[in-house]
């Protein structure tokens, strides 16, 4: 198998050292790697000290029945107490927990003691509605402070929440409610999106028609939209929560008590309910938030620009930042409402010091142009991060230069819904960053790249990304389906966790995550990464965005088919551009990677979380009827692609 074609990305020679002042004051220093290697469980015992335990744990890890882990055995704690009460008790109740910025421009500043009071009221309301420890509660809300209040009220009672992203349809919501047998749904009339109210309640009404276990729907008033009402079942949040006492004593639960279920898509149609538990998850998220973002709770203003409906929001808007007593920004709306500089205005307004977002957002900003962020003062930023997909070197360098003023470290963080916490990332005060590389497993995490037989590959080679030791925030199972948990993650390679991603170790042993293995192509027996070809295409000045798929081909097994969006400034997009781009890919990577076809399109099909749905592009590339488009953010995109494209062979 020729690996040489993968090596293009690895010819990246730019290096960005940590700024000296950040390095000198960094939370985690280089010696952490050796300390964790020497005594991994001792290291995790030490990290658990950032959490307040009502009953101390007796063992760090029970791995006697792999892959079913028990972390911090015997320990008891309350997650909401750790996120709120203890900060108030320590005298930090007046510290801001969230600067909330609504899309229409309304704002709220919420301190730790205010948040604690609201969470206690919500917990008392849920008790009044009959919620008991262990009951499941579904949350279907926009990005508003009450979403955090609802989650922490559940955590306070030991009632696992399942937050369903507000962009999901009624049927997706129904499936999730049914799968985890939730009895209460917390929703809102609607949220603000792209300059107008976007209703949520109708989807809940439709979903719960087929969910007989749901006895109450709590409705937060956000937009003031008209809502249909089912007496007896539906209750206004303000009516039920507002009257409650702000006193509630949190009960401590076992470290392995379920904290939440988050659904994510797998290779089959049925979403997987990823189960996270309390102690390990809180240790894992607070440790990584503290080390990867170098959090200084007294001075930082931290912003994860993601939706709470995804794991990134759970771990790095809610649990990690609050456990660390951080001040965060929460923004309700879309980046370009009412104008394309909205994010940068928010950074300037709150003097954000840390920004964490997805490469797809960065590439969209690149497309719009550097003159937009240039209008705002972004000098408060000292660290910027990326998550969710491989960041191509061009986007990395643009992000660092244009948003980070050429001075901030960029932390490219690899992790998954399943891992619960960041697993592979540079350490901002230690690592010399390479654009496009997530670099190294964090201290305490053991990652490797293995071949088909599960053998560790040498430096300079590619293979499958695996995690060789359990970690505190790992998923404990798939809700209600232990067998699928074992099959999906622990069966491909014996005794190790298979992440589903392809990766490469460069000559220095640093890790480059190449994307899902289902996105890795095999062309004439050569292994090619979609990411690498996309990266090559995006490095061409005329290309704004690119998506590449491997289409089946009778001669070569698979063939490279690229979909590109041209920059507005680029000329028409006819045959010449296509020829130019094919030559460009050849020149950057090698003739083997030259796309068989390049289709110029005006949009790419993306999920609501911004991931490109290559499956649909593969349908187009293979001239099939386009498959299920229900998870697309905009389901008209596929029509536009099939009608408007300009194929060229
Ligand atoms: C991909 C999001 C490359 C990867 C937190 C993983 C990444 C999947 C990176 C998980 C990164 C995430 N570089 N790829 N820094 N971060 N991925 O569950 O394919 O929504 O398996 O979790 O995103 O996506 P999920």
| Strand-residue proportion | 15-25%
Round the mean pLDDT to the nearest integer and report it. 92
Task: Report the major sheet.
Answer: 7 strands, mixed
Strand order of the largest sheet: 5-4-17-16-18-19-20
Shape annotation: globular
> Treating each run of at least 4 consecutive H or I residues as one helix, how many helices?
19
The percent of residues in helical segments reads 25-40%
Class based on secondary structure composition and strand pairing: alpha/beta
Distinct bound molecules? 5'-O-[(S)-ethoxy(hydroxy)phosphoryl]adenosine
Separation of the first and last Cα atoms: 27 Å
User: What does the radius of gyration come to?
Assistant: 24 Å
Q: What's the total number of strands?
A: 30
Low-confidence stretches: 1-6
Topology:
Layout: H1 20-24, H2 31-38, H3 40-47, E1 59-65, E2 68-73, E3 76-77, H4 79-92, E4 96-101, E5 107-111, H5 112-128, E6 137-140, H6 145-157, E7 161-163, H7 170-180, E8 184-188, E9 190-193, E10 196-199, H8 201-208, E11 216-220, E12 234-236, H9 237-241, E13 253-254, E14 258-264, E15 272-277, H10 278-292, E16 301-304, H11 311-323, E17 327-331, H12 342-350, E18 354-357, H13 359-368, E19 383-387, H14 393-403, E20 410-413, E21 447-450, E22 462-467, E23 477-478, H15 482-490, E24 497-505, E25 511-516, E26 520-523, E27 526-529, H16 530-538, E28 543-553, E29 557-566, H17 575-588, E30 597-600, H18 614-621, H19 637-644
Parallel strand pairs: 4-17, 6-7, 6-8, 8-11, 11-12, 16-17, 16-18, 18-19, 19-20, 29-30
Antiparallel strand pairs: 1-2, 3-13, 4-5, 9-10, 14-15, 15-23, 21-22, 22-24, 24-25, 26-27, 28-29
Helix pairs in contact: 2-3, 4-5, 4-6, 4-11, 5-6, 7-8, 10-11, 13-14
The structure holds 5'-O-[(S)-ethoxy(hydroxy)phosphoryl]adenosine.
5'-O-[(S)-ethoxy(hydroxy)phosphoryl]adenosine (WTA) is lined by residues 264, 311-312, 387-390, 412-417, 438, 499-501, 513, 515-516.
